[in-house]
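Most newcomers find our protein records easier to grasp once they have seen one. The structure tokens are whole numbers drawn from a learned vocabulary of backbone shapes. The record below serves as our worked example for the rest of this section.
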Amino acid sequence: MIKNIYFASDFHLGAPSYEQSRARENRIVSWLNQIEPTCSELFLMGDIFDFWFEYRLVVPKGFVRLQGKLAQMSDRGIKIYFFKGNHDMWVNDYFTKEMGIQVISDEYVIERNGKRFYLHHGDGLGPGDEKYKILRKVFRNPVCQWLFSVVPPQIGLGIGSAWSSKSRRDGLDEQVFMGEENEWLAIYSKELLAKEHFDYFIYGHRHLPLDLQLNEKSRYVNLGEWMKYNSYAVFDGNELSLNYFEAK
């Protein structure tokens, strides 16, 4: 049986309500059930949760169906990668210890079947958004994370969820294609291409499914999100395609 590599991002589980999140989680698990027989590797490329913070002995409650499914897939030998996004950048070692998932903090370069992939959630890259780039450095600072960890979970998780909700609302206008010359991740990818070759640039964060041909040999793919599009990418060993899941 042919084994594929799958890429998905921006599930934003936990938002905007418990009921909607649970329905989305069920849909995602259905998708994972569907792809599992053909999956060799799964790349979850950020913002899987609308907010996540790991205290030393506490993690956010819920999402047990997704975590159980990922643990099952990992136990069956499927390699799973979890990219830190701007909403779940405070993932530490819980998924690695409990599910054998490899956590990726920034960019990750792989080569599969002669094709080179540049992988990143997409936050903080390209021109503009200088305010967030500063905040990203602050939020990822170990001292900042320690200070937040001393806040009781009931308060800390409430603050984090409120901040994530505002961030998500502020980004709703991102679901409009701005033209290749104005797409910041396409601009960033072209800058990298001037230095070295990649066949595929794959990102999340943007929330709009995009598949742009950067030159004769290189493509930029944005994975979209699962609140509206249910979009993902799959590499079958020869070609990468951007697809959409429809529950049966």
